[in-house]
Amino acid sequence: MKQEVLPVQIRGLLPANQGVALFIGNDDKVFVIQVEQNIGAVIGMALRGAHHERPLTHDLIGHIFQGFGVSVERVVITELRNATYFARIILRQENELGSKLVELDARPSDCLALAAAQKRPIYVTSKLFSEAEDMSEVLMRIGEEGGSEEPA
Questions:
Q1: Nearest C-alpha neighbor of 23 from the set 139, 122, 146, 117
Q2: What is the enclosing helix (H) or strand (E) of 69?
Q3: Alpha-carbon distance 35 to 43, whole Å?
Q4: What is the distance between the alpha carbons of residues 49 and 147, in angstroms, rounded to a whole number?
Q5: Cβ distance 99 to 93 under 8 Å?
Q6: Any idea of the CA torsion for 33, 38, 41, 42, to the nearest 10 degrees?
Q7: Alpha carbon distances (Å) from 37 to 52, 59, 71
Q8: Nearest to residue 9, comparing CAs of 79, 91, 74, 82?
Q9: Which of 10, 45, 49, 127 is the most buried (most CB within 10 A)?
Q10: What domains sit in the chain, N to C, each tagged with a CATH number?
């Protein structure tokens, strides 16, 4: 990926009509990505450091990665096209031959769940960040009303 990126964090979660609204951003701006209810719950658990009794899909993927010497390096939310966000997950594999980076297309919700579970950095392309609608005020209002689930 040869695009300029900015570091962001998951700033809040809020149940919404069609799932969960994830507030993603930094001190300058926050934007929203809608995810399915179950992925929102997984991300919320990961941010709180809570664990499910049995491994969930993202836990299983993390265990598979670990077994093959693969780690999540970072995730990048790359673009918004036709009301759909796109993302890339960058993996690092270490073995006796050295280190290799692999970049894969993935849903932002899966990228964010893995990044939250494994405490890995989240980035957004500068172009997308500049184009995204700023929802900072909405997040602040929701936080004041006690409606947003604050990340850990």
A1: 139
A2: none
A3: 10
A4: 20
A5: yes
A6: -90
A7: 16, 17, 26
A8: 74
A9: 10
A10: 5-145 (3.10.690.10)
Question: How many other C-beta atoms are found inside a 10 Å radius of the C-beta of residue 54?
Answer: 7
Tokens of 53: 């009794």
Range with the lowest mean pLDDT among 53-62, 109-118, 124-133?
53-62
Compute how many other C-beta atoms are within 10 angstroms of the C-beta atom of residue 150. 12
DSSP one-letter string for 76-111: EEEEEETTEEEEEEEEEEEETTEEEEEEEEE-HHHH
For the whole model, what pTM was predicted? 0.88
H or E element at residue 57:
helix 57-67
* CA–CA separation, 137 and 143 (whole Å): 10
